[in-house]
Amino acid sequence: MPGDVRDNPDRSRFEMPIGGAVAFANYRRTGDTLLILHTEVPREQEGRGHGSELVRGLLDLARAQGLKVKPLCGFVAAYMARHPEYEDVRG
């Protein structure tokens, strides 16, 4: 179900199931900062807002855990630039 973003620390990525596939955002953790390296949505699910849902979910999870996010992925950087309500989690 979309919107169900979970951290998978064993794979260093946030994951969101979508129609039998998984959208994900790879990260590297350094102290209390998550470096978001790459996001990917299954090709057949692109253009439906799932990438934004994934980013919103990972930012909410980071905030809840008191972590900062440094977006090295262009998609995440653009999302954060359009959503100043997440400025408090910017690392």
Written as H for each helix and E for each strand, in order along the chain, the element string is EEEEHEH
Strand order of the largest sheet: 1-2-3-4-5
State the distance separating the first and last CA atoms: 29 Å
Q: SS-based structural class?
A: alpha+beta
Q: What is the CATH architecture assignment?
A: 3-Layer(aba) Sandwich
Structural descriptors:
91 residues, 5-stranded mixed sheet, Aminopeptidase, alpha+beta
Describe how the helices and strands are arranged.
Layout: E1 6-8, E2 13-18, E3 21-30, E4 33-40, H1 50-64, E5 68-71, H2 74-82
Parallel strand pairs: 4-5
Antiparallel strand pairs: 1-2, 2-3, 3-4
Describe the fold and architecture.
- The chain has helices at residues 50-64, 74-82; strands at residues 6-8, 13-18, 21-30, 33-40, 68-71.
- 26% of the residues lie in helices and 34% in strands.
- It starts with 5 loop residues before the first strand and ends in a 9-residue tail after the last helix.
- The radius of gyration is 12 Å and the shape is globular.
- With 91 residues, the protein is α+β, with helices and mostly antiparallel strands.
- The protein has one domain (6-85): Gcn5-related N-acetyltransferase (GNAT) (Aminopeptidase, 3-Layer(aba) Sandwich), CATH 3.40.630.
- The protein is built from two helices and five strands.
- The chain has a five-stranded mixed sheet.
